Structure formats: C-alpha cells, structure tokens
Amino acid sequence: MKQMRRLTGEMLLYCFAVVLATGAYLAWFRPDGGTVVYDGPYEPLRGVELSSAYAAALDTGLATPGGLAIRHLHHSSSMLLAAGVAVWVLLGLFRYVPARTARAPAYVLLVAALAVSVVLWQGW
Fold first, then answer.
1. HSE of 5 in the Cβ direction (CA atoms, 13 Å)?
2. What does each of the 124 residues of the chain score in pLDDT, given as a tens digit?
C-alpha cells in the first residue's frame, strides 16, 4: 500500500510538470478578450464574428504545428492529475490519519478532487 501511494505521488508529480509545461506553451496563445472577426485557416468560419478565445483555440489547433496535440496532452494530464489526487487521498486516508476528527480535511480534498474530475470530464 505504501509503494502504491508513493508511485501514485510520483505520477502526480509528472502530471503536474506536464500540465505546467503545456500550460506555459498554451499561454502564449491566450486571447485578450472580446470578439474578433475570424480569418484563420478554417474556411467555414471565415468572416464570422467569434469570441477571441474560440478563435485562439481554432488557431492553436489548426494553424500551430503540434498545437492540437499539446492541447490534448494538457487536457488529458489535467484529468489524470485530478483523478490521481483522489486515488492518492484514498490510498492514504485510513493508513496515515488515525483520528476520526483529523480525517475531515482529507474528505474535503477528496470531494474537491472528485468535483474537479467531473468538471474536467465534461470538457470545461
């Protein structure tokens, strides 16, 4: 059980590093807000007024080399990170927290990790 928790912790560390690296890359394409008239590579939307966030997502996915793969890697790593935190808490919940009153923060962390997993699973 102790080895499983340690390996899960290592996986969480690597997932966090991937989320940070891909997030830093994707931050370069962050829009400044508002609406824009789309003039990117996706032909059916040319000339249509879009939010700048959607236009930036389309440009990152279609015009940037490897952009769609980076966005997918970022999203998948985020989902794995949230689910891994829930597993990590479950593995250590009853082993390292003996008092019933001291388990409350672990339960709060578990519920938060599960809520983030649900939100990420829905694609937000």
1. 11
2. 678 888 988 999 999 999 999 999 988 887 778 899 988 888 898 999 999 888 888 888 888 888 899 999 998 998 888 888 888 877 877 666 566 656 677 778 778 877 877 877 776 6
